[in-house]
Amino acid sequence: MTAFDLTPPSDAQRQALSAGLSDEERRVLLQHGTEAPFCGVFLDNKLDGVYTCRYCGLPLFRSNAKFDSGTGWPSFFAPYAGEHVRTVRDTSYGMIREEIVCARCGSHLGHVFPDGPPPTGERHCLNSVSLAFTRQGQALPDPLRRGGAESGVAD
């Protein structure tokens, strides 16, 4: 069980969070868009830390689970905690895929595929624009002002 509060943001919190998004962030996070490959800010990030949801701040993936998939998007073989991401069947564009969304706010993150490396065999292929990054030892974001685990530091 996670120490983070997974209660969805209130309508007022969603309005405040949405107001701080760029057009591209809004298109990807809220309208299930995809950023162009090989252009995301986190594609080549090699720093130690935690990738969080750009919208609500929930920790999603650790840097030690990141790998170079060659696909043009940041890829991870396992989430920060299984409860922090959900999958939704995506049948858009004539394909059947598993969309990854933030378990707390429902924001679109990317897709998961069964062609990743050990130990999970999964490739969580994410949009950089859906993420924020906190370096190891720095305070995690807490845009919902929940305190508790949210006021901790990236491990």
TrEMBL record:
<dbReference type="GO" id="GO:0033743">
    <property type="term" value="F:peptide-methionine (R)-S-oxide reductase activity"/>
</dbReference>
<keyword id="KW-0479">Metal-binding</keyword>
<dbReference type="InterPro" id="IPR002579">
    <property type="entry name" value="Met_Sox_Rdtase_MsrB_dom"/>
</dbReference>
<dbReference type="GO" id="GO:0030091">
    <property type="term" value="P:protein repair"/>
</dbReference>
<protein>
    <recommendedName>
        <fullName>Peptide methionine sulfoxide reductase MsrB</fullName>
        <ecNumber>1.8.4.12</ecNumber>
    </recommendedName>
</protein>
<dbReference type="InterPro" id="IPR028427">
    <property type="entry name" value="Met_Sox_Rdtase_MsrB"/>
</dbReference>
<dbReference type="Pfam" id="PF01641">
    <property type="entry name" value="SelR"/>
</dbReference>
<keyword id="KW-0560">Oxidoreductase</keyword>
<dbReference type="GO" id="GO:0006979">
    <property type="term" value="P:response to oxidative stress"/>
</dbReference>
<dbReference type="InterPro" id="IPR011057">
    <property type="entry name" value="Mss4-like_sf"/>
</dbReference>
<comment type="similarity">
    <text>Belongs to the MsrB Met sulfoxide reductase family.</text>
</comment>
<keyword id="KW-0862">Zinc</keyword>
<dbReference type="GO" id="GO:0046872">
    <property type="term" value="F:metal ion binding"/>
</dbReference>
<dbReference type="GO" id="GO:0005737">
    <property type="term" value="C:cytoplasm"/>
</dbReference>
<feature type="domain" description="MsrB">
    <location>
        <begin position="14"/>
        <end position="136"/>
    </location>
</feature>
